[in-house]
Amino acid sequence: MTDLIPSHFLTPTKNRIFDDFKAEFEAGNIGLYLAKAESPEQAMVSINAQSTFYPASLCKLFYLACFLSKVEQKELVADDEDWRAVDNMVSLSSNDATSYVLNRLCNTSTGATLTEPQLTPWIEKRKSVQRWLATHCPQISPKQYHLYHATFDESPYGRDQQARDILGSNQLSPLACAQMMASLFLDENLLPDHLTKTKRLLSKNSGQNRFSFDGVDQVTQFIGGALPKGATYWSKAGWTSQVKHETAYVFLGDCDCYVMSIFTQGEALVDDAKLFSELTQFLVGEIE
């Protein structure tokens, strides 16, 4: 049930955490991925990394990349309100801002339910991010992303619910998120000021972007809470009552940077205050 990449074969006997959570790994409820950022497809660790999970707010990483690309290609003329929404979508993980940004990317609008003749073209527009990914990110397998929707504090309504019923929920894999994180940092086509903005929005260093819009600490019980002293990192986390994920670009003070993804699903795993730290420490141990 695990997609262990041959370059780094892991067995449950290599680390205590595999004994403690063996059933969860085998059930596909924990996904891990680790690679050098300069070669994100060459895994150091890959467990359930090509399996897709409901991503919660990790979709915002992809919407950020799509937004920057469309601005650079002059497909979207961004104003101050657009940039305010992008900032809050990423740094504060605002769901309202995400809905605004996604509608800008797709040229759609949120609102009441639509009749079938009205809904069909609306649905096609909502496939804009999927089409962008297929064209601009061919290194990411289309089997590992399914992105049509915004995120919501409670639930979608109206045409957004109609779209969810027809298209299913958003889905992402740990590998796809690691690849996107590496692409954002290493894409030579990204304008310098856009790279600077990306780093600022994703930074979790020196207290930056520590708390989400609803007050969740995005560091202590996530990857940042278990990184060694002196490490610097940039990340996007996502969580609900049923999932808890994070993808990070990490520099540990050596000459290499790394991308890592930790995905967990199921209420018991989400509520385990130590699990994310233990998984992070395992991945760091594979680097060191």
Automatic annotation (TrEMBL):
The enzyme's E.C. designation: 3.5.2.6
Domain Beta-lactamase class A catalytic: 86-264
InterPro entries named among the record's database cross-references: Beta-lactam/transpept-like (IPR012338), Beta-lactam_cat (IPR045155), Beta-lactam_class-A (IPR000871)
A single BP term in Gene Ontology: response to antibiotic
UniProt catalytic activity: a beta-lactam + H2O = a substituted beta-amino acid
GO molecular function: beta-lactamase activity
Family membership: Belongs to the class-A beta-lactamase family.
Protein name: beta-lactamase
